[in-house]
Amino acid sequence: MSDKLIEIADNDGVVRLTINRPKALNALNSAVLAELEAVLVDLERRDDLRAVLITGSGEKSFVAGADITEMRDKAPEEARAFASQALRTIKRLELLPVPVVALVNGFCLGGGCELALACDWAVASDNAIFGQPEVLLGVIPGFGGTQRLPRRVGPAMALDLVTTGRKIDANEALRIGLVNRVVPQAELEAYAEELIKQLSGNGPLAVRGAKQAVHDGMDQDLDSALALETALFACCFAGDEQTEGMTAFVEKRKPNF
Ligand code: CAA
């Protein structure tokens, strides 16, 4: 294991990021966030990017939250700066133009859950535990949880989780729509590989367009969002990808994107 806080593995535009602080259950401190942001700035510039996976080092934890030891003595302005750094970094992850998949391999608490909420996909191992336990520490979620959680699971369930601080298992997370899939821990990697194969086998510009339509449309009224979809749909007809995809269908072969 290297001494980097964010390990990067790159395979033909599919980039896997591993948060590497296993002794602190991959808790997010300002050093981790700074390294993650620098990595994301590099990824933003890449045209060949197809998908991004993010996970935690070790078998016990995805991310067990923001670093409590680092936060403990912060004054309000320092806490604001820490939250702003995290929000900016998490937003960069969310806005990557390709699918971002959280591989949740254990504890996914507080800031960890907030990181997963910014991903397009969340695949959890069956031992994963989710929660926003901040109120147990005398604070509220500060990395986007009070806003992204209700948008993902609805306000009633979000209020339940952020006011009780209770933890839920992977199956409850699946039932409330917090994650897309739950798989046995031993099968997490194989499932991720299959998912990435599926995502990166599709037309790359179409996948980017589909993500953009959903993300940008969510913040607009329905008519504006539908107009956005129409514009992005029409854009698909400007390049080779649509010609290849539809010609392959007519010729009864697999498209070569
Ligand atoms: N910050 C800093 N260190 C953490 C941490 C965190 N969020 N979570 C775990 N660790 C550290 C522990 O202090 C411990 O370190 P030492 O070995 O040096 O004592 C190490 O990781 C292993 O943890 P435990 O011994 O506690 O492991 P466990 O299996 O007994 O318990 C756990 C696991 C239930 C996840 C427990 O560690 C825990 O409750 N962690 C805190 C979870 C939490 O409250 N997260 C929210 C943080 S606040 C937040 O995220 C705010 C926000 O929105 C910005």
Question: How does this structure look, described?
Answer:
The chain has 257 residues and is an alpha/beta fold. It has 2 domains: 195 residues, 2-enoyl-CoA Hydratase, Chain A, domain 1 (Alpha-Beta Complex), CATH 3.90.226; 49 residues, Lyase 2-enoyl-coa Hydratase, Chain  A, domain 2. 48% of the residues lie in helices and 17% in strands. It has 11 helices and 10 strands. The strands form 2 sheets. A 6-stranded mixed sheet has the order 1-2-3-5-7-10, with helices on both faces. A hairpin with a 2-residue loop joins strand 1 and strand 2. Helix 4 crosses helix 5 and helix 5 packs across helix 6. The protein is globular. The protein binds acetoacetyl-coenzyme A (CAA). The site of acetoacetyl-coenzyme A (CAA) has 21 residues, from helix 2, strand 6 and helix 4. Pfam families: ECH_1. Belongs to the enoyl-CoA hydratase/isomerase family. One of its GO terms (molecular function) is hydro-lyase activity.
The H/E string reads EEHEEHHEEHEEHHEHEHHHH
CATH architecture of the largest domain: Alpha-Beta Complex
Overall mean pLDDT: 96
Quaternary state of this entry equals single chain
Task: Give the tally of structural domains.
Answer: 2
* Portion in helices: 40-55%
Strand numbers in spatial order across the main sheet: 1-2-3-5-7-10
Element layout with pairings:
Layout: E1 6-11, E2 14-19, H1 30-44, E3 51-56, E4 61-63, H2 68-71, H3 76-95, E5 100-104, E6 107-109, H4 111-117, E7 121-125, E8 129-131, H5 145-153, H6 155-164, E9 167-169, H7 170-175, E10 181-183, H8 188-200, H9 204-218, H10 222-235, H11 240-250
Parallel strand pairs: 2-3, 3-5, 4-6, 5-7, 6-8, 7-10
Antiparallel strand pairs: 1-2, 8-9
Bound molecules: acetoacetyl-coenzyme A.
Acetoacetyl-coenzyme A binds next to helix 2, strand 6 and helix 4.
